[in-house]
Amino acid sequence: MLELRAVTKRYGKDLKAVDGVTLSLGRGVVGLIGHNGAGKSTLMAMIATLARPSSGQILFEGADIVRRPEAIRGRLGYLPQDFGVYPNLSALEFMQYFAALKGVRDGARIRRLLELVNLHEQAQRPAASFSGGMRRRLGIAQALLNDPDILVVDEPTAGLDPEERLRFRNLLGELGLGKLVILSTHIVSDVESIATELAVMRSGRLVAHETPDAILARARGQVWSASVAEADYGALRERVRVLQAQRQDGRMLLRIAHPELPCLGARAAEPSLEEALMAQRYALQAEAA
């Protein structure tokens, strides 16, 4: 459905925000993972045709959307990280306004989408009075107005409380059953339960593209749990990667990323997805060194 070929975005002569990304995506939820500044938002803006690559191609069903952005715009939904609302419009009026911009004349669809994101009872409220989570849900509703084949969502849970984050993740997971949903985040838990694929970016480059199960499988045997005396913790931390540390009764309970037994008494642990990604990152750094 969507193919990126050696996509690069330069700013000035030296800065590459995106560096030679090649990626092929079909339907499902794709988690675009990376730290702040990894190039995720720049890549998504190029997919959404809001920015042009310095070089490379982006193909949607074979059409080059860099040269012909209209080939994707009518079938794309986009929710940017900073999504604003018009203070004088109600949620319903806001949706009607965006429907008019997108050429959607089905009033029943607007009502169905407000129900989908659980805002139908607040449809007459000014959108400016909504909480952050409600605004994000309204943003998803407007992105779905044209029934897009591709939904691009940038850092959707930033600033949301745990309940809103859970509701938002569940909604995106359901949408991914029939569409391509590209979800950008630096919070691994946002995609752990819903992503069918993960694309991991670091310093503008794509360093991994695989299923969560594949990442977890490779990390098994590299993540350990251990309990050590507080007096021994400093020396251990100097030679291994400590993922998590907790004090308890004069000892340190640790989660460690290491390719072999890190200390006496350590036991192999089942990694979380976040731990697996961190173990992968440390392994790549060790290889580079």
Automatic annotation (TrEMBL):
Residues 2-228 form the ABC transporter domain. Keywords: ATP-binding, Cell membrane, Membrane, Nucleotide-binding, Transport. The keyword Transmembrane helix does not apply. Gene3D superfamilies: P-loop containing nucleotide triphosphate hydrolases. One of its GO terms (molecular function) is ATP binding. The keyword Chloroplast does not apply. InterPro entries: AAA+_ATPase, ABC_transporter-like_ATP-bd, ABC_transporter-like_CS, P-loop_NTPase. It holds the Pfam family ABC_tran. SUPFAM superfamilies: P-loop containing nucleoside triphosphate hydrolases (SSF52540). SMART domains: AAA (SM00382). It comes from the Bacteria. Belongs to the ABC transporter superfamily. This is ABC transporter ATP-binding protein. The lineage of its organism: Bacteria, Pseudomonadati, Pseudomonadota, Betaproteobacteria, Burkholderiales.
